[in-house]
Every structure is written in structure tokens, then in C-alpha cells.
Amino acid sequence: AQTVTQSQPEMSVQEAETVTLSCTYDTSESDYYLFWYKQPPSRQMILVIRQEAYKQQNATENRFSVNFQKAAKSFSLKISDSQLGDAAMYFCAYRPGTTSGTYKYIFGTGTRLKVLA
Amino acid sequence: EAQVTQNPRYLITVTGKKLTVTCSQNMNHEYMSWYRQDPGLGLRQIYYSMNVEVTDKGDVPEGYKVSRKEKRNFPLILESPSPNQTSLYFCASRYAGLGNTEAFFGQGTRLTVV
């Protein structure tokens, strides 16, 4: 069974600094997708960044980037130039590829990020 | 605007009183699903639907029912709610085609069963 592990329940970062959130996953599939979702106090689930397993290049979205290590099954999120608005719960998620016939997301337990002014 | 709409956003109910949480999407997505979010457990899938009249259990289906009579709607039914169903619930939808299609989430429903 696939699993997603976020080992850091809570992290803190100083405003304008860089922080890295960790995520590891376990799967026997070769075709899958990985995601980071942000959940601010409003509870809305907001997609931050996504990565296709077949792509070697790490995904980047403005201040957000990932370090995807397929062999190690690691998918960390780096937030550069942290802003107060980045404070939120962050969830790492895994989804099998379409050929698996399974469509569900598997989420980690979340990392609460605090940004200190 | 593309969106998934859940109602209500907050609900307090008593044990055993049947309730329905509605979910509607306007993107013509085939795939819809329900998750519950609990502290320390992340989001866990309750039920999902591949298309109209096609539903199946997720990881934590006990105590819940769903139906998919129309493509846009996927209500979650709690026939006899119990306090252990107090949770934050999310509905999500996605295009079921090939590729890395994005899942869209509703705003969440905070349910308290007393």
C-alpha cells in the first residue's frame, strides 16, 4: 500500500528566510504524481506545486520549488523568501498514474508552518 | 468561475439525526470524492465516484453513504451520525483523463456531532 510521511509536525521560519518541508512516500508504482497543498486558516486546499514522476526536472513555482529524489522516494518543498502569508498547514500528497485504475490521493499528516516577523 | 461548492460550511448536529452535506462542481468532472480531515491523520478518502451511478468505498467508508445521480452533484449522507464523525470534510473533483490533472477542493464542512 502506498503511504506518505511528513515527519515534521511543525516548522518555524523567519520572514524572508528559506525553509524546507520534508516528505517521503512509499510506492511500487512507476507512474505517479506528487503534490504539495497549502491549507491556510480559511481551510481552503490550495495547490502549491506538482511533480510528475517521469520528469527528472524539479518543479518550480515562483518562490516554491521541490527537490524530487525518485530513488530515495523523497519530495521536499522549499519556500524561499518566506512571507507572513505562507503561514499555513502544508500537505504532501501522492496520486497513482492513470494506468493504475486508482484515482485517490494519499495525503501525509501535514506540517504546520509558522512564519515569524 | 470553476469551483466545487459544499454546503453547509458549518454544522452542529445531535447523535442519530440524519444529515446530508452537498457537493456540486461546475467543471463537468467525471471523478469526485469525499475526504475527512482529522488532526494528526491528514486527509483520508471516504468514498469516490468515477462517473454517474458509479461509486466505491475509500479508506474510511463506515457510517457514510453517497450517491451520484447527476454528474455535477455528489452528496455525502450520514444516516445516523455519531461523535466519532466529528471532523472537517472536503469534497474534491477532477477530470479523469490522462495526465496530471489538478483536483479542485470545496471549501470544507466543519461537522460537530454531539
Give an account of the 3D structure.
The complex is a heterodimer of chains A (117) and B (114). Chain A is mainly beta. Chain A contains no helices and 12 strands. Chain B contains no helices and 11 strands. By secondary structure, chain B is mainly beta. In chain B, a hairpin with a 3-residue loop joins strand 4 and strand 5. Chains A and B meet through strand 6 of A and strand 4, strand 5 and strand 9 of B.
Topology:
The complex is a heterodimer of chains A (117) and B (114).
Chain A: E1 3-5, E2 10-14, E3 19-21, E4 24-26, E5 32-39, E6 46-52, E7 60-61, E8 64-69, E9 74-79, E10 88-96, E11 106-107, E12 111-116
Chain B: E1 4-7, E2 10-13, E3 19-25, E4 31-38, E5 42-51, E6 54-57, E7 65-66, E8 76-78, E9 87-94, E10 104-105, E11 109-113
The percent of residues in helical segments of chain A reads under 10%
Distance between the termini of chain B: 36 Å
Shape of chain A: globular
The average pLDDT value of chain A, as a whole number, equals: 93
> Unreliable runs of chain B, pLDDT <50, ≥5 residues?
none
Q: Can you count the helices of chain A?
A: 0
- What's the N-to-C terminus distance of chain A? 41 Å
- Percentage of β-strand residues of chain B: over 45%
The Rg value of chain A, from CA coordinates, equals: 14 Å
The 3D shape of chain B can be described as globular
Q: What distinguishing features does this structure have?
A:
heterodimer, A: 117 residues, mainly beta, six-stranded mixed beta sheet, 12 strands, 51% strand, globular, B: 114 residues, seven-stranded mixed beta sheet, 0% helix
